[in-house]
Amino acid sequence: MRVDILGITVDTYSMQETVDQIRQAVEGQIPMRVVTANPEMIFASERNARLKKLINSADIVTADGIGVVWAARRLGAQVMERVTGIDLVHGLFPIAHVGKWRIFFLGGKPGVAEQAANQVVLMNDGISWDAMHGYFSAKEEPKILEKIQNFQPDVLLVGLGAPRQEYWIAEHPGLATVSIGVGGSFDALAGIVVRAPKSIQDLHIEWLYRLWKEPWRWKRQAVLPQFVIKVLRQGFRRKTP
């Protein structure tokens, strides 16, 4: 099931259902592209037809953030929980360990992807991995593509930031069975960025914690009130005969 939020069709899968869908894709060697859609990305797609088409053509579009969960519920869909990039990969790693998956980490500053992968395999040593930072030029890109192709990953995690990572994945299909845009997840996996305490996550105000820790994010967060207004308008239009 999917729900239309400002023209973006978001899946109503729970975290476990999303993990199961990806597991089945890897085990069946079924190509899959996953977009973790947050309010900022959905809002931006209203003025970017290419981005909207790209997101809606993904195999899975998750509700990345409590704002998207709220919007879905407001529009009548039963979305039980958010499915963020960082939580999704944490859900996948134990399964990848058991299944001995091959995972490629692409993105972040030099050294961060490697650090993230090393931290992951401390607890999930059944995973085979390779990594490359995201600060590459167009001239360097062919070598990166060759590196990924030679590694033959089951899962390609791309942390180039949205929407660059979404464009990049769509422009380079076939590099892995499953490709997922994970934003800044590598910083969290590497321990460079510390996530909000579980109590704050449970209160659904992790965004506020991140804003406190990273004040420069206010420009991104500024779209949230506009997102809310547009969702309320969409709901009103649906109810108006």
Automatic annotation (TrEMBL):
It holds the Pfam family Glyco_tran_WecG. It comes from the Bacteria. Its EC number is 2.4.1.187. It catalyses: UDP-N-acetyl-alpha-D-mannosamine + N-acetyl-alpha-D-glucosaminyl-di-trans,octa-cis-undecaprenyl diphosphate = N-acetyl-beta-D-mannosaminyl-(1->4)-N-acetyl-alpha-D-glucosaminyl di-trans,octa-cis-undecaprenyl diphosphate + UDP + H(+). One of its GO terms (biological process) is teichoic acid biosynthetic process. InterPro entries: TagA_TarA, WecG_TagA_CpsF. Pathway: Cell wall biogenesis; teichoic acid biosynthesis. Keywords: Cell wall biogenesis/degradation, Glycosyltransferase, Teichoic acid biosynthesis, Transferase. GO terms for molecular function: N-acetylglucosaminyldiphosphoundecaprenol N-acetyl-beta-D-mannosaminyltransferase activity. Belongs to the glycosyltransferase 26 family. TagA/TarA subfamily. Catalyzes the conversion of GlcNAc-PP-undecaprenol into ManNAc-GlcNAc-PP-undecaprenol, the first committed lipid intermediate in the de novo synthesis of teichoic acid. This is N-acetylglucosaminyldiphosphoundecaprenol N-acetyl-beta-D-mannosaminyltransferase. It comes from Desulfosporosinus fructosivorans.
